[in-house]
Amino acid sequence: MSETAAPPPAAKPPLPPGTQVMPLSEALEKLARLEQDGKLAEADDLARRMLAAMPEHPHILHLAGIVSYRLGRLDEAIERMETAQEIAPNVALYPRNMCEVYRGAGRLEEAVKAGRRAVELAPQDSRALFNLALIHYERLELEESVQAAEAAIALDPDYPEAHFEKAEALLLAGRLKEGWESYEWRFKLKQAEGMLPKTDKPQWDGTPLPPGRLLVIGDQGFGDCIQFGRLIPWVASVCPRPVLACSGDLVPILRQLPGIGKIVTRWEDTGEFDAYIPLSGLPRLYGLTTENIPPAGYLAPPEALVRAWGEKLDRLTPRGKKRIGLVWAGRPTHKNDKKRTLKLAQFAPLFARDDVVVLTVQKGDQIAQVGGYYGRAPLVNLGPEISDFIDTMAILKNIDRLVTIDTSVAHVAGAIGAPASLVLPKAPDWRWLLGREDSPWYPSLKLYRQTTAYEWAGVIERVVAEL
Description:
Layout: H1 24-36, H2 40-53, H3 58-70, H4 74-87, H5 93-104, H6 108-121, H7 126-138, H8 142-155, H9 160-172, H10 176-183, E1 214-217, H11 222-228, H12 232-238, E2 243-245, H13 251-254, E3 262-264, E4 275-278, H14 282-286, H15 303-316, E5 322-327, H16 337-340, H17 348-351, E6 356-360, E7 379-381, H18 389-396, E8 401-404, H19 408-416, E9 420-424, E10 445-449, H20 457-465
Parallel strand pairs: 1-2, 1-4, 2-3, 5-6, 5-8, 6-7, 8-9, 9-10
Helix pairs in contact: 1-2, 1-3, 2-3, 3-4, 4-5, 5-6, 5-7, 6-7, 7-8, 7-9, 8-9, 9-10, 11-19, 15-18, 18-19
């Protein structure tokens, strides 16, 4: 920064009589509270007014940058937060939060530098260590991620996010038995509220119970429930006819699993039970490793529905072309959706093929992207005609291959043994492990991984070249 004297501030017009000026500390507190409460439009307006009055105040710049980040104005957020850090280079909070913003921008080298700087400035800050664990995970530095998470836990033993991050790093590294133990902390995360029933009954410890006295809970996303559902027959062999509580969307497929007593979609319908277990808690009790995963093929659509969809696709698609199913977007509320969801247009190499017909198996608002489709390959939009996961299963039985992001349809394909190409971010969800093109969970899937974070072009080209 220049050592020359700053010019005197411009004269300000007098305020109207009776105008009250909010003290700076009160304004900063209000700005932080608005951001934390999700009142981003109000926070943005206040931040702009504060910056107009004090454009080089580091904490105003920092908080305004956080608001910009949450509003999706990434370049503006980074510019503001970097300026704050330049003005006040020894405030640990600034690189701590910059670590997370850089991570969200895919600037992983800058993120890890910021994370290390935050820990250097505040070695007793468990949140700084947690952010460093997150960025090490993104960089696939899994041992470093575990170490940073453990350091955060040493400072704050009841820090659920740090325990869960440790779990994900261990699981991604293939250290499943260790990972399942830390994975138990997931229900202490804020977003897990309401996933379990309000009860004084214990969590099941794996010992036998009388018929119908165990409650099994489909506690996480659709994909997780499909993946862990394969363990329900084992549960039923220990505790006959368990009650399964799950989302109504999952009922048509999970009812296929043998041994279930009844399925409910509301807590009040569970009846009396002696113990409960989340589906995602079964791998720990089972002692699941990559060597003893129960085989896929545990789900299947009804043959009559497979035939009906086969006849429909015969009418809708030209003969002599490969039928390629496509899913390009996931649920926007998923914590990692930004890393996994693509735009339809990013599959242009697929659309340029003249030997395929593309069948969208996409659900939700992202189907609207089909309206702007342009390509050599015919495209048939099946989304509006898919009623449930059973329809999806039947479609997958009538196509040559599915191309999909990491979403529930990938699990559906794997569970029924349908061939699929799964495109993954550089730092994938833990279940896809590292450095392999196959999945021990689903042998019919082939995995295609990013080599550079947030860069999909090469991944899509590899998928299309191997169709």
